[in-house]
Amino acid sequence: MFKIKLKEIEENVVANVLANNLQYEKTIFNKLEQSNIVEFLEKSFSNNESSLEEDNPIKINKINVPTS
């Protein structure tokens, strides 16, 4: 009985960790989307694709994302 209860607790812990990670990822994505960084990255990526076609080096810019 004790092993069954322990297994159930382990499964609940794993489920909670996965749910918390998913919520955290959604929160980060929403913050990025609200700050237009997603649109900026999409434009940067499409610009980099066109530079590849012209045999130009890809330029990587650092982006500071506010944490709060």
TrEMBL record:
Top-rank taxon: Eukaryota
Protein name: 1331_t:CDS:1
Organism: Cetraspora pellucida
